[in-house]
């Protein structure tokens, strides 16, 4: 195991498949995180996660988001949360 020693405001980058975690947040502040994914604009959103490796993660995301906003479907949620960094917008149908 590797325990990187971090100071307030430090950032650590790692591969998303790396199993990771952190100790208890002993402050009154929120921890912040950013998840970046680089994909082709031709990629498509999965319309039905049932039976895929993403089924349970999708359920957790929808359960959490339903506490924050009502009546949003999975694809609309990810379109809202996504940002184009460079390149062109996908012009096909979802």
What is the residue-averaged pLDDT?
A: 78
- Class by alpha and beta content: mainly alpha
| Largest sheet report | none
**Residue runs with pLDDT of under 50 for 5 or more positions:** none
Classify the oligomer. single chain
Distance, first to last CA: 41 Å
Q: Compute the gyration radius: what is it?
A: 17 Å
Number of helices: 2
- Number of beta strands: 0
Silhouette:
extended
Q: Helicity range of the residues? A: 10-25%
Order of helices and strands: HH
Strand content: under 5%
Description:
The protein has 94 residues and is mainly alpha-helical. The chain has a domain at 40-94. Helices cover 23% and strands 0% of the residues. It is built from 2 helices and no strands. It has helices at 55-68, 74-81. The chain is extended. 0% of the residues are buried.
Features of this protein?
2 helices; 94 residues; mainly alpha; extended; 23% helix
Characterize this entry briefly.
With 94 residues, the protein is an all-alpha fold. 23% of the residues lie in helices and 0% in strands.
Topology:
Blueprint: H1 55-68, H2 74-81
